[in-house]
Design brief:
This protein is α+β, with helices and mostly antiparallel strands. The chain has a domain of about 60 residues. The chain has 3 helices and 2 strands, in the order αββαα. It has a two-stranded antiparallel sheet. GO terms for molecular function: DNA-binding transcription factor activity, RNA polymerase II-specific; RNA polymerase II cis-regulatory region sequence-specific DNA binding. This is IRF5 factor.
Length: about 100
């Protein structure tokens, strides 16, 4: 993610996690042909990738994840809003002058 953010790679890192239940995997069958597969998308990873790629367009209502404790979701969204604001402020700062010789 850091290399992507710095522009040292053009390919964003994968952040999805795939789980397969009841069958051997990996094997010759594609994951779409498995009986039970689960795709897990960590919200934090998705938001960081969107933030670094400039595609961040989320709000507290746009997170499709159901979390057992609503307070945890609210805290996480607020923390990401603060992180995004800090990141935006950092992007607006003029470059620091070079140190004196």
């Amino acid at each position: 993610l850091i290399l992507f953010q710095k522009g040292q790679t053009t390919t964003p890192p994968p952040f999805e996690i795939f789980l397969c239940f009841g069958e051997e995997w990996p094997d010759q069958k594609p994951k779409e042909k498995k009986l039970i597969t689960v795709q897990v998308v960590p919200v934090a990873a998705r938001l960081l990738l969107e933030m670094f790629s400039g595609e961040l367009s989320w709000s507290a209502d746009s997170i499709p994840l159901q979390i057992s404790h609503p307070d945890l979701k609210d805290k996480m969204v607020e923390q990401f809003k603060e992180l995004h604001q800090l990141w935006q402020n950092q992007q607006r700062l003029p470059p620091a002058p070079p140190p004196p010789p």
